[in-house]
Amino acid sequence: MSASGPSIQPSELAGTATPELKQTVINTLWYWGEGGPRYYSSQIGARIKPIRYDVALGSEDKKKVDAELECEIEVGDGMVNGFNTLHGACSAFLVDVCPSCCLIPIVRDHVTLTLDIVCHAAASYGTLLKVVAKTTSVGSRVLALRCEIRDQKTDKLYVSGTHIKVASNVKMPRHSRESDSARL
């Protein structure tokens, strides 16, 4: 990637998504990666490479949305813990960013409601990872995705996760003033 724009073109990205949807994924990853030190983990985001993007929209109503995004990233500097393996926080970052990128071209204006990860094994420094994010349910208010992080060569599962998002225009319940003051 460069400061002038993404280095990958939609035609280089495999999958059934339209070139416009692929370009949105590419631009989103580039934007998050090139944001510089102001953006959380931009040095890691800059190394996420989209490989494949599949999208199947329902018929006229377009209520049914199936999308899957596959990315690659090599475990490297800034991604490991004291044991030289993929840090849990970095796993959570990937389970956040990749499903979000899978969804952004189709549904915008959503925020994370829950993010759950399970670490199954340790990925060592230098391991090439395959990160696959897939929609499981896309509603008007709540969107659910799952994500797996695997070894690109052996297919060994390192991390699995779910990412539940909610439309940002949905008003969340507020606590009453009494309960707010009671907590102080």
Primary descriptors:
184 residues; alpha+beta; Thiol Ester Dehydrase, Chain A; 4 helices; disordered C terminus
SSE order and pairing:
Layout: H1 19-33, H2 42-45, E1 49-57, E2 65-74, H3 88-103, E3 110-119, E4 128-138, E5 142-151, E6 157-167, H4 177-183
Please sum up the structure shown.
The chain is of the alpha+beta class.
Give the overall silhouette.
Answer: globular
Count of domain modules: 1
How would a textbook summarize the main sheet?
6 strands, antiparallel
Low-confidence parts, pLDDT < 50 over ≥5 residues?
A: 175-184
Please state the structural category: alpha+beta
What is the C-alpha radius of gyration, as a whole number of Å? 18 Å
**What proportion strand?**
25-35%
Question: What's the helix count?
Answer: 4
Task: Give the beta-strand count.
Answer: 6
Strands of the largest sheet, in order across it? 1-2-4-5-6-3
Fraction of helical residues: 10-25%
Q: CATH topology, anyone?
A: Thiol Ester Dehydrase, Chain A
Distance between the termini: 47 Å
Order of helices and strands: HHEEHEEEEH
What is the residue-mean pLDDT, rounded to a whole number? 87
CATH class: Alpha Beta
At the fourth level of CATH, the homologous superfamily is: Hotdog Thioesterase
Reported CATH architecture: Roll
Describe the protein's architecture and organization.
This protein has 184 residues and is α+β, with helices and mostly antiparallel strands. It has one domain: Hotdog Thioesterase (Thiol Ester Dehydrase, Chain A). It has four helices and six strands. The chain has helices at residues 19-33, 42-45, 88-103, 177-183; strands at 49-57, 65-74, 110-119, 128-138, 142-151, 157-167. The chain has a six-stranded antiparallel sheet with strand order 1-2-4-5-6-3, with helices on one face. Strand 5 (142-151) and strand 6 (157-167) form a beta hairpin. The longest helix has 16 residues, at 88-103. The chain is globular and about 50 Å long. Residues 175-184 have low confidence and may be disordered.
